Structure to design on (333 residues):
């Protein structure tokens, strides 16, 4: 007999953690040829958080992870897997996820990092979805955590104004129910031919570390802002439509869009092209800037805490990042 009961992946808890130190646009005016007015109108950003010397992607991730575990009402030893999405790992290896596993005392969890830059969280969610829906794991912690301030060139006004530090986390849980609730689907894509658009060119495997490479600022973010902007809008619109079509849903069904917080103007262009009204778009970029892989889980946590997500509501997550990478997820809350 077909009972209709299926294994579904549901969000059991969310969490976030931000460094205390705030860097405002007014602070940046003191060291750069820029203005609060330029940054606000071109990006929507007012301030961002900066990690202290004793903070790193793992310490931020541990705090966000603890909050997500508490919100899911599970113990650390119940976790089967920890995926840390980061492009600013503490060190080259071991994986930042191993430090997080230790910090959480999640003794039964396997732990590894993934790198998809700003798209990292949706890529991580897509991996976790497979483990849960296959029945292999019951609880997976996915954390997006970044210390972008360590890899921005603070003398480059076209990039350093954009980025901030922070971490966001969710617990994804296996549930056996008949109604289509939880994570409906994930959709991820990459185009390596666009790898030059946003890149940290200095490498460990490609070239030896050298003083010359450091002097050429190869270990910092280099970005073609305009081309990235155009590619971001195109891909975010495309993948949002793909996710809706896959689930035979339409724009009108969406309760809330949580877009990657890279630039307010990118968010406005994407949602305008999709025909989504302003009141259905979650934006917190003014407070944190672009926190890369942490941006979506931080926004998801804040939106749920602010009761902007009602039970049964349809949530669209949509991201774009270096790679180029892009993706979307649809969640029935
Ligand atoms: N303050 C003042 N002037 C500035 C600043 C600044 N902070 N930055 C650039 N300018 C100047 C430029 O030098 C240029 O001057 P010019 O005309 O004399 O040459 C002028 O402003 C216009 O520059 P543009 O680059 O054309 O400005 P634009 O409107 O495109 O905004 C920005 C630049 C904000 C970077 C935008 O292109 C953008 O947001 N792009 C997408 C970035 C993005 O999403 N990155 C993250 C991707 S996700 C990831 O994976 C990391």
């Amino acid at each position: 007999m077909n009972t209709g009961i299926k294994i579904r992946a549901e969000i059991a808890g969310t969490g976030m953690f931000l460094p205390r130190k705030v860097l405002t646009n007014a602070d940046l005016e003191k060291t750069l040829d820029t203005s609060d007015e330029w940054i606000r109108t071109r990006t929507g950003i007012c301030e961002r958080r900066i990690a202290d010397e004793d903070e790193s992607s793992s310490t931020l991730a541990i705090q966000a992870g603890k909050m997500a575990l508490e919100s899911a009402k599970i113990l650390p030893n119940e976790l089967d897997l920890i995926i840390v999405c980061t492009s600013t790992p503490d060190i080259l290896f071991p994986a930042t996820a191993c430090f997080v596993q230790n910090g959480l005392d999640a003794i039964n969890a396997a732990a590894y990092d993934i790198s998809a830059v700003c798209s990292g969280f949706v890529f991580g969610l897509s991996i976790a979805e497979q483990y849960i829906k296959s029945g292999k794991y019951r609880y997976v912690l996915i954390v997006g955590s970044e210390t972008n301030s360590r890899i921005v060139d603070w003398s480059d006004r076209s990039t350093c104004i954009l980025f901030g530090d922070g971490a966001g986390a969710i617990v994804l849980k296996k549930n056996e129910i008949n109604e289509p609730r939880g994570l409906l689907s994930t959709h991820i894509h990459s185009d390596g031919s666009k790898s030059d658009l946003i890149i940290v060119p200095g490498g460990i495997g490609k070239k030896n570390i050298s003083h010359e490479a450091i002097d050429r600022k190869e270990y910092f973010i280099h970005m073609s802002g305009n081309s990235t902007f155009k590619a971001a809008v195109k891909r975010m619109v495309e993948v949002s439509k793909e996710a809706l079509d896959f689930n035979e849903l339409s724009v009108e069904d969406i309760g809330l869009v949580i877009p990657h917080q890279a630039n307010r103007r990118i968010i406005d262009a994407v949602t305008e092209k999709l025909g989504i009204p302003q009141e259905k778009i979650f934006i917190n970029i003014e407070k944190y800037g672009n926190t890369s892989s942490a941006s979506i889980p931080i926004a998801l946590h804040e939106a749920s805490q602010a009761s902007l997500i009602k039970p049964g509501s349809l949530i669209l997550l949509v991201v774009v990042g270096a790679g180029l990478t892009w993706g979307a997820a649809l969640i029935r809350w």
About this structure: Residues 241 and 274 are 8 Å apart (CA to CA).
